[in-house]
């Protein structure tokens, strides 16, 4: 084999950069990050990560890992943690940096900032102080689920995470019963079966639904059916991973007076007249005033 002098050896071409670092004006830059697959990040998000004077993140480890995957260097910049538990303490410092002329890029742990994310208070205070706020759109678990669910997407409502206490959950779900839109909830795998049961109780077990799990990841799964069918499928087979639950819109239904009285009697057995009327009216898409009058008559008040 002929020896080739080191000086004449062909150099391996360097990996081209897929981001462009540039000077950013002072302000707050919200950027969406992948919800699973790291390749779902946008080029603009990478530009912001490479260019911002200061980086802030809901989860600093996740952001550092994402930057490492895409070859974006920190270059000595500190990543500030900003999450639900330290927002009140961290916010003044971040605001001060922007008022001093710094650009701050903020990233959620996954997905779009402010969607089930602590960035809202930071955004509101920045705007109140006249600091420019910019969004670099990208991945969102809610939109990804809606896209593949097969449920109507012309009108939808994102309801976030349900509350934890039993009474609050039932009222929370019942408040959406008559909404003429596809409903979207985020839920943990530990509570999804309970949630489906409560939705059957408050919205009606025949509502169409889709449970979208581990979106963009290796074990992505979409289960479709009625609320009752999904609830039954999880009784003896718990699932893992991050879940988006979508529920189809309320359809007009004919309800007999006997069925209405039966639902009211059951609700009055555990709720006040007002709450019982509210729950039953929402369940059947009826006017609350009419159902309240019926409930008053049945309760003898």
TrEMBL record:
It catalyses: cytidine(1402) in 16S rRNA + S-adenosyl-L-methionine = 2'-O-methylcytidine(1402) in 16S rRNA + S-adenosyl-L-homocysteine + H(+). It is found in: Cytoplasm. SUPFAM superfamilies: Tetrapyrrole methylase. GO terms for molecular function: rRNA (cytosine-2'-O-)-methyltransferase activity. CDD domains: RsmI. GO terms for cellular component: cytoplasm. NCBIfam families: 16S rRNA (cytidine(1402)-2'-O)-methyltransferase (TIGR00096). This is Ribosomal RNA small subunit methyltransferase I. It comes from Celeribacter ethanolicus. The lineage of its organism: Bacteria, Pseudomonadati, Pseudomonadota, Alphaproteobacteria, Rhodobacterales.
